[in-house]
Amino acid sequence: MEIITVTKDNIEQEHICCAISNNKDYQVSAKKSWLVERFRDGLVFKKGNVRGKCFIEYIPAEKAWSPIKADGYMFINCFWVSGQFKGHGNSNLLLDECIKDSKEKGKQGLVVLSSKKKMPFLSDPKYLRYKGFELADTAEPFYELLYLPFEKSSAKPCFMDRVKSPKIEEQGFVLYYTYQCPFTAKYVPLVEAVANKKSIPFKSVRFETTEQAQNAPAPFTSYSLFFNGEFVTNEILSEKKFEKIIAEKGL
What we know:
Blueprint: E1 3-6, H1 26-39, E2 44-48, E3 54-60, E4 68-69, E5 73-81, H2 90-104, E6 109-115, H3 125-130, E7 134-139, E8 143-149, E9 158-159, E10 173-177, H4 184-197, E11 202-206, H5 210-214, E12 223-227, E13 230-233, H6 239-248
Parallel strand pairs: 5-6, 10-11
Antiparallel strand pairs: 1-2, 2-3, 3-5, 4-9, 6-8, 7-8, 10-12, 12-13
């Protein structure tokens, strides 16, 4: 498989969005706009020369949209190989490209947000540990910050203290999200509509800058839902799944 590096010059011609096949879909447009703005911060998006889920996206940790301390590292935003492209060495190919590029740029290593066990929208901990990633830090309820140091002397990354136990002051449902994941452009308005229809207190907050995301109240900035101050989920919810949560909360 050939690996393509997506840039501002070829992004309009490349398929970059997960399971979304239509390049003109508004979810794709939101994601591409987000990427173009991040390229100036050193973001790299590498993909197989295919239409499908076969890509890795990473950025210098100082510019990562994540509340972590990992100076000198490269942060993996998203790493997804699935469907027909799984089981053919493509994950190794993409990760090797990331490692090579990061070493050439003088980075101390790689860092990535994962979980104790495989969770939706988070990188697979089993694969990462198999590839040599180690545990750097943890945050409730299931988050793990994994890292791959290039030298034994490399400093260990960590979460910001405030996200070790994610909580907020506001009551009702509060959803924090970004367009780093294209699915939020579609599904956030859908759950907002459900809440409005049921007259349930609901507030959505979209992070639009690096600083805002780095000051997020939870480790996963692409999507974090809270209810009455408590963290609920990082899973990007459909209407049906959100209605189930509403029922569980007795609303």
